[in-house]
Amino acid sequence: MLGPNDVDSLDYTYYVLADKDLDLKPDLVNIAIHHEDTSYDNALGIVSYESTVASMDEHNEAYQLLEVEVSVSLQIPDCSDASYVLRGAKNLTFDFEMLPAD
């Protein structure tokens, strides 16, 4: 995951059709860093993300269309455990979801 041609972050745009009455916020869950035969969760805080609802449009009387922007990045490890997790990692996976803002 860290090597030649690295980027600082990966940016995603999601379009979410949601009930107008719901106040939702974006979230990433099930974040995992994968090696060939092992996966690590994000307990060490290596993966961070920022998210914003970039725009909202009225879809119809009951629904709104949300444009959600998510930027995912890796943090430079402060400890040897985190460095070990990144060394030899093949990919990163996560699930995107919208949660109640409360």
Provide an overview of this structure.
This protein is mostly beta strands. It contains 1 helix and 6 strands; from the N terminus they run E-E-E-E-E-H-E. Strand 2 and strand 3 form a beta hairpin. The chain has a 3-stranded antiparallel β-sheet, with no helix packed on it. It has a 3-stranded antiparallel β-sheet with strand order 3-2-6, with no helix packed on it. It is elongated and about 50 Å long.
For the structure shown, list the relevant keywords.
mainly beta, 3-stranded antiparallel beta sheet, 102 residues
Helices, strands, pairings?
Blueprint: E1 10-19, E2 24-34, E3 39-41, E4 47-58, E5 63-74, H1 80-86, E6 91-100
Antiparallel strand pairs: 1-5, 2-3, 2-6, 4-5
Strand-residue fraction?
Answer: over 45%
Shape designation: elongated
The average pLDDT value, as a whole number, equals 86
Helix share of residues? under 10%
Low-confidence stretches: none
Biggest sheet architecture: 3 strands, antiparallel
Quote the distance from N terminus to C terminus.
35 Å
Structural class comes to: mainly beta
Beta strand count: 6
Widest β-sheet, arrangement of strands? 1-5-4
| Number of helical stretches of at least 4 residues | 1
Mind telling me the C-alpha Rg?
16 Å
Order of helices and strands: EEEEEHE
